[in-house]
Design goal:
Elements (H helix, E strand, L loop, with lengths): L1 E9 L9 H17 L3 E6 L9 H6 L2 H9 L4 E2 L3 H5 L3 H5 L8 E3 L3 E3 L8 E2 L2 E4 L5 E8 L3 H4 L4 E3 L2 H14 L3 E7 L2 H10 L5 E4 L10 E3 L2 E4 L7 E10 L4 E11 L7 H17 L3 E5 L12 H14 L3 E5 L10 E4 H7 L6 E7 H11 L2 H4 L16 E4 L2 E6 L5 E8 L2 E2 L5 E7 L9 H4 L5 E2 L5 H12 L1
Parallel strand pairs: 1-2, 2-3, 3-4, 4-6, 8-10, 10-11, 11-13, 17-24
Antiparallel strand pairs: 1-14, 5-9, 7-8, 12-13, 14-15, 16-18, 17-20, 19-24, 19-25, 21-22, 22-23
Helix pairs in contact: 1-9, 10-15, 11-15
Amino acid sequence: MIEHIHFYYCNDLHSHFDQWPNIVDYFNKKKKHHAQADEQSWRIDIGDHVDRFHPIAEAYNGKANVELLNAAGFDIATIGNNEGITLEHEHLYHLYDRANFQVTCGNLIAVNKEKPAWLQNSITIKSKENLTIKLFGLTAPFNAFYHPLGWHVESPYDYLAREIKELREEADILILLSHLGFTEDQLIAEQYPEIDLIIGGHTHHILKNGEEVNNVLLTAAGKHGKYIGEVHIDWDHRLNKIVDKQAYTVETEYLSQDQDTVHRLAKLNDAAQELLNKPVTYIENSLTVDWFEQTPIIELLTAKLKDWTNADISMLNAGLLLENIAEGYVTYGDVHRICPHPINPCTVKLRGIEVLEVVRGAYDEALMHFELKGFGFRGKVLGKFVFSGIDIDTEIDEAGIEHVQHVHLNGHEIENDKVYTFATADMFTFGRMFPEIARSTTKKFYLPEFMRDLLADALRSSL
């Protein structure tokens, strides 16, 4: 006898709800179809469903996302870094209190506190023919961010080394829900062929027909709900093993919509706008945002960052601010719309020679026009870089390119070997935009504050 088992999933939605009604409708139809065939199916979220760039996620601190998963009939979820490090401790601790689905994340640990009631190391489900299917979640260990928020994330490899034998012994089918990224999924598959299936996310990769590594099936469905994934497993009860496993992705744009979900989103959005309609301050004159100019509003925010972190120097990019601020009352909803990024302030210690390299790099026209995707940035382009605490002398050459000549702090040239405290947005500690910042071993992240919290405070206190 062959038993057919089906899993449907989404990953890295990031509160992009445009296709959510399409996803819900598709999952509902598939659930009904399998039920009519007397087959079982489950719906899974692989994390980063929450992203506070969206007013619904911001106003409800992620709980509305859980409400949407409940209404969509999801069965299982794991957490991503956007649930883990963009919510304050208590908001994450109680995020899934009213979830109608089970949540697993084996390597997430509450520091000096009982683990949340909803958090499971693994989840066991039984098929109609008494197969034991075990699913366990693992999330990326960004402990520089988790620790200030009262959490610790164990290395996924330490967790697997300790737990994999017992997990395998207890399961006929073993499934990892991975918010670790494609490279990590491949490495885990190489090291742990005991795992039958890895449903992945985090790095926004898409495996349209899955990929087998060491007989482990890997799958992932991109980002923002543009695709969803499905996995179909055939178990032969006579041979007592999996005889087939297949993974596919489905493009969502042209799927039909679930109208109840359309109405639910509209209602949530209206309520979120009302919740965010709290006044922050009143301004007499409008403030202009220009991604390629040093405007008063980005100067104000950059100066606030320096003072708030007690740094010597601060640097921000004008592309952080997305819209002008009109005169009159400014609400928190306005601040959120203008600066929606889940980006935290941070400081690094840099030698003077490294500061100079950062400043020179900031005048690169290509970097200013770079359309950054990820690292928390929810804007269009990086824009002009603005500094506070230093004076920069530049010269424009015959080709019209601006070059840094001298950098002064308090009237004195930056000293090559002197160590300075340099404040910026945490996204510059990743990637290759500023290698001197990214490779620093003295990063300090300020959580749970986002850059928009500093913007609200700057508007209140300076205007």
